[in-house]
């Protein structure tokens, strides 16, 4: 665990983080965040975070060295999409039992599992994940991976991120460290060119990166590696020959971008493909970075021409929704890059942001939100469920955009809700993605079901019979009331 402790400390002391640079030496040693209590790692544990970052590398076998439940709880936890290899959709685990732990058979079982995967699937690499159980029992997965790689002639990558060491975000960064230590730079491409870039922190959720890649293709820009969305092992291994990089989610992989710049002179910037203006700005920044790295300056003119064409098409499509959504109030309960990029995108079409969560946002993300909203009161670190419910119940927002875990708060408050997190079914990146996002918001807000569910229930609309019936305190009055109220003959019934 000594090497793991050193790796965690290195991840915490991140020079690329403006907030971290402002600390003194003593504060930096204490880490970027207070470690979470084991078993209470809100939002996922470190193992979960590492698996999220690496599993979208689609032609790799992802082997979890743990009891079965660890793989069952983490499999397919994001809506990433693949255009080819599907090996990543197969679950591999050593399925340790109490007997394996007592008899010290963990390392032997891991070696046999790697051999079985090699013989059955012949992948280019096997990623082996340490977990709480195997870290506590002291299994040396790095030694086993090294021996298996030499024996079977394939890359076997140890991912040392057991769940108890911290949060999901820490696991994200440790996954980036595993790529730096064992994958990136291990393959030399024979087709490197001046227009090669890396996209870092892009997960291709619902296939949304496929809405952006055609734009880059039209500019002659090749994505050497998209890490991790829809990636192949050889692409990641040769990513060190890219000329520039774009960081989409710095919360997850800022350490990867910074160290690739230091080792291989790959400059990077942080941007977003959410919204029309941000997509255009990202394309301009990519072109400018490539020119600084030696590409033909004509790419700047081609980029500007493409932006003008695509913006005109997108705004024309959005005109139909602008009148219907102008002034509608949005509550965002998300985090990371979406906390500011989606805010900017929605404000472009005239929607009002009444609040956005910054719980998982970096200091840079928060500064962007301040510049966009011009009001700190619309930013909240964490809002309890009852506070979200009260806000929606009193109609302070027309729709809430969040993840699936908070959808029932909106539904209970009879307020429209749209999934903006990783479980969503629709891609929202790029120009076409922005149109799709606005279309889904329009469908949610103007769905006729909301008018119906907000109506009083039928049992709340019954007339008060006490007002219609006379006083029935005595027997005579009761008999008279019954005779007046209930027909006694067929004729009476027909007349009444």
From TrEMBL:
Residues 45-443 form the Nitrogenase/oxidoreductase component domain. The keyword Nucleotidyltransferase does not apply. One of its GO terms (molecular function) is nitrogenase activity. It comes from the Bacteria. CDD domains: Nitrogenase_NifE_I. InterPro entries: Nase/OxRdtase_comp1, Nase_comp1_CS, NifE, NifE-like. GO terms for biological process: protein-containing complex assembly. Pathway: Cofactor biosynthesis; Fe-Mo cofactor biosynthesis. Keywords: Nitrogen fixation. Pfam families: Oxidored_nitro. NCBIfam families: nifE. Belongs to the NifD/NifK/NifE/NifN family. This protein may play a role in the biosynthesis of the prosthetic group of nitrogenase (FeMo cofactor). This is Nitrogenase iron-molybdenum cofactor biosynthesis protein NifE. The gene is nifE.
